[in-house]
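Before relying on records like the one below, remember that each one covers exactly one chain. Contacts with other chains, cofactors or solvent are not represented anywhere in the record.
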Amino acid sequence: MSVAPAQLLTARVVHVRHRPFRHRLDYRIWSLLLDLDHVAEAARASRLFRLERPGLVSFRARDHGARDGSPLRPWVERQLAAQGLPAPARIRLLALPRVFGYVFNPISLFLCSDGAGRDSAVVYEVKNTFGDQHAYVAALAGEGPHRHAADKTFHVSPFIGMDARYRFTLSLKDDRFGLVIDETEGGERLLTASMVGRLEPMTDAALARSLLRFPFVTLKVIAGIHWHALHLWRKGARYHRYLPPPEVEPTPAR
C-alpha cells in the first residue's frame, strides 16, 4: 500500500432499498484518506488543505473520535483494545473533510495496519443526523476482501428498525477502495449501501479538480439524506422512533 500521508478518493455511493419497496440513491463524492501520524505533513505541503483552522478544505480532530479535539490515535487504540486487539503501527482515516467549513460524515473508517503494512483492523465510526456517534470494530487478516458482520446497535435511519444486522465487505487494493454494507432484517436483505472509487495522491491540483466538480460535497451528502428520507416517507416506509446510542461501545464485528 501507498505510504503517502494523504490521498484523495473519488467514489460513487449507491444505496438500494430492497423492501418493502425498491428505492435507489446514487451520487458521487470525494473524500480524503489521511495518515493520522502525518496529517500535519500533508497540511504543510498544501495551499488548499488546512489542519485545525479554517480553509477551503480543512480537517479538525473534533469531528471524530472523542469529538473534543483530542488526538485521534489514542481513541482508536482504545476502541481496538476494548476488543482485545493490539495497537496498530499505522492508522489512516477515510472521511469527508470540512469544505467551506462544513462537514457531516455518515460513516468514517479508521483503517489500521501492522508494522509489515498488512491490514489488521478497521473501526467504522457511524454518525446519525441526531448528533450521535457509535463505533463498530473488526479485526482484519489476509489481503481481503475482508468480510465481517455485526448486529445493529445504533439508531441511524428512522425508516429502519433496530432488529437488523450488517454484513460488511471491505476491499483495499493499491489505488482502489470498496465498501459494501448489506443490511438484513429477519435474515432477508433490506438495504445495500456501497462506496467504490479510486485513490490518488492528495495534491493541490487534485483538490482543485474535486472542488470544481463537486464544490459543495458535504452539503450534498446531508441534503441527499433528507431528500431521500422524504421520498421514503412519501412511499410509506414505516417510521421507527429515535433511540439513544448504546452506553457501551464499540460493537464488535466478527
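The chain has a mean pLDDT of 95.
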